[in-house]
């Protein structure tokens, strides 16, 4: 990549800087010939795909497809990905529906290889949907290479908006968030949950998420997060808490080092 995003500082200050410069930086990043070639290749060839195996057999197209859903780490897990795609999401027993990470279900449903009407690869709208997601995720990844917290912040709006487009109950929205690792990390950090929180019973987790949402965001109704101002409050709280946690960790490490030095006495003192 010839252009890499400029991230001079982290935390909420870095987020505000990124928001102000986002349009220009993203345009410069997406003008890279490598991304353009990958996008063009996907658009030109996805219409030829008829089965999950067709897609997984083409590594270049598969990379675009997986990256569009933040699943690029599975690029080498060809047979696993093929099963996720082939089984679809219509059957409740399908693999994608059993996986805790809900991104797999979204990925499988987008291609629709289990549809009686045939896969969505035959419709041009799919190519536009996937390449648009791919471009957005590639920019997020480039930001994340420098500051992963800002990558997580960038991901919030897209994930929430996708969720609301699909509809569902308040309870299902909470569970979808809980099953989407990047989004869940933002909520858990913003709400101040400890590292072992995920080991609680799933209904207890839901109850705690709702209580903390009311306390931190002023609402326990997930649909209220359609409001961009509330999304921004979530991101702000996440980044401020993350910075505080990191500062605390550094301070603790420094205190431990000082304590060890004190216990050793002054090694340069003679006599």
Specify the structural class.
mainly alpha
Output the CATH homologous superfamily of the largest domain: AGR C 984p-like
Note the overall shape. globular
Give me the CATH architecture of the largest domain, please: Orthogonal Bundle
Give a short account of the largest sheet.
none
User: Which spans of ≥5 residues are poorly predicted at pLDDT below 50?
Assistant: none
Rg, rounded, reads: 22 Å
Number of strands: 0
CATH topology of the largest domain: AGR_C_984p-like
List the helices and strands in order.
HHHHHHHHHHHHH
- Counted up, domains total 2
Can you give the helix content as a percent range? 55-70%
Number of helices: 13
Percent strand:
under 5%
CATH class designation of the largest domain:
Mainly Alpha
